[in-house]
TrEMBL record:
Record protein name field: Flagellar motor switch protein FliN
The entry's keywords: Cell membrane, Cell projection, Chemotaxis, Cilium, Flagellar rotation, Flagellum, Membrane
Listed NCBIfam families: fliN
Similarity field: Belongs to the FliN/MopA/SpaO family.
Highest classification ranks of the organism: Bacteria, Pseudomonadati, Pseudomonadota, Betaproteobacteria, Burkholderiales
Species annotation: Noviherbaspirillum cavernae
GO MF annotations, alphabetized: cytoskeletal motor activity
Gene: fliN
Length: 122
């Protein structure tokens, strides 16, 4: 590096060196843009969840499972006509009945026992 390049480099670096070793009080904190506030309830409302309707369940042996064929009937632990369990991401939150909605099945909510949405609505 020759003398002219060395002088030019020193001139460029002077401003950076002065800023790097400046006193903390001399730093301009007003230049930083404020971070936007996050609204947790609004963010939570956008989280996708899976809603399922559980008809019932049965506990059987592996031998019985292997014996199941096309026309087999497996008795469930719910009575016919009994409300079904609504689950959100696998957690029971209430009971419902099956209805027809257009060409699809739907659910008619009977009650909501385990659904506490206070944190989302506040």
């Amino acid at each position: 590096m020759n003398a002219t390049e060395n002088t030019a480099a020193n001139t460029l670096l002077e401003g950076y060196i002065d800023d790097a070793f400046a006193e903390p009080d001399a730093v301009d904190v007003t230049a930083a843009a404020p971070r936007p506030q996050r609204n947790l309830p609004d963010m939570m409302r956008k989280i996708p969840v899976t809603v399922t309707l559980e008809v019932g369940s049965a506990r059987i042996s592996l031998q019985d499972l292997m014996a199941i064929e096309q026309d087999s009937v497996l008795e469930l632990d719910r009575l016919a006509g009994e409300p079904l369990v609504i689950k959100v991401n696998g957690t029971p939150i209430g009971r419902a009945e099956v209805v027809v909605s257009g060409e699809n099945y739907g659910l008619k909510v009977i009650d909501l026992d385990g659904l506490n949405m206070d944190i989302v609505t506040s």
